[in-house]
Amino acid sequence: MIINKPPMGWNSWNTFAWSINDQLIRETADVMVSSGLRDAGYEYVVIDDCYALRDRGPDGRIVPDPDKFPHGMKSLADYIHSKGLKFGMYSCAGIMTCAQYPSSFDKEFLDAQTFADWGVDYLKYDFCNFPKTADPRMAYARMSMALKATGRDIVFSACNWGEFEVEKWIRSTGAHLYRSTGDIGERFSAVIDIFQSQDKKIRYSAPGCYNDMDMLIVGMDGIGNVGHPGLCGDTEYKTHFALWCLNGQPLMMGSDLRRLRPEMLSLLTNKDLLRIDQDEECRPPIVTGPPWCNRPCYFKHLSDRQFVLAFFNLEDEEGSSDFRPWDIGFPTTAGFGMSLREVFTGEVKGPINDYISVDLAPHDCSVFIGEWVAM
Q1: For residue 260, what pLDDT is reported?
Q2: Which residues of the chain have pLDDT under 70?
Q3: Which residues are catalytic?
Q4: Homologous superfamily in CATH for domain 8-277
Q5: What pLDDT, in 10s, does the model give residues 218-230?
Q6: What is 286-374's CATH topology?
Q7: Who contacts 222 (Cβ-Cβ below 8 Å, separation ≥6)?
Q8: What DSSP element (H or E) covers 196?
Q9: pLDDT reported for residue 290
Q10: Which of these, 324, 302, 323, lies nearest to 311 by C-alpha position?
């Protein structure tokens, strides 16, 4: 199974955590279709932790909580598939999940078959309560082999929070994506801390196995499990989403899609940002200027001879971010310039072959898609 682009979808954890049930998941699937999110590329509906009973059944299998999921998981998967979507589930490499539910340590092949029997297309595999004497590489390799042994195509999302330099070995286990950070919260400081931690990790991301900086907080509006009222507004969501797309991240929405504001739907379905995220070459961006700068500019190669030029102001005050072409090896004497189109406003600049400065409000960004033209 080859994953040619970072997966896109929705996960229940950021907003709902343990407050999940069959109706919520079906309603979320309905909204993904009616809102146009499915057609924009968001295809996975993923149930996170807290869906099971505390004890396994007599046959050793995980048992969905009948109060939360009275029709069982196969019925729910069939419903999601009928909507043209794919179904995702959760387990953990430790002896219990993060919320102390049954986990898959030493039961990988049984659980993988259970998930396949339910019709699962995506597995998020967490790292809580992992035995200190066990080998995480072997644990993720076992689950990868177990999923393949079922004969069903299941995307394997390895969520070990960046522990044990996971980016250096996870591709060899057969995983399709790997979490390289701790959990995100609905705070702009958390978004920036996570993004700035990727300098030495993003280089390992490539088609087939993608770096994962955790789920999106876009549109949470302070509600839910990791919600923090008043700490993120539309500007912060805009910059958060632009940073994730710039780094070619899996885009797993975490808000309550049933109450998603039109402005947030427009952001999440921005065709230019999704084109950047889903670019087939999946190249990491180049930061221009010092890496500690809080008003950075990034250059990113795209396929079809295009590129991204993105300016950010991560400070709490107004300021400018600038691009100096010599920082990416582009001489002003080349005889070529950059023709730029801003992805939010449609503004066109260029051709430009010299220094560029963009004024930005606090926490704001400006993202351009460009191409080379003769001067």
Answers
A1: 98
A2: 289-292
A3: 126, 183
A4: Aldolase class I (3.20.20.70)
A5: 999 999 999 999 9
A6: Immunoglobulin-like (2.60.40)
A7: 186, 228, 229, 230, 231, 232
A8: helix 188-196
A9: 62
A10: 323
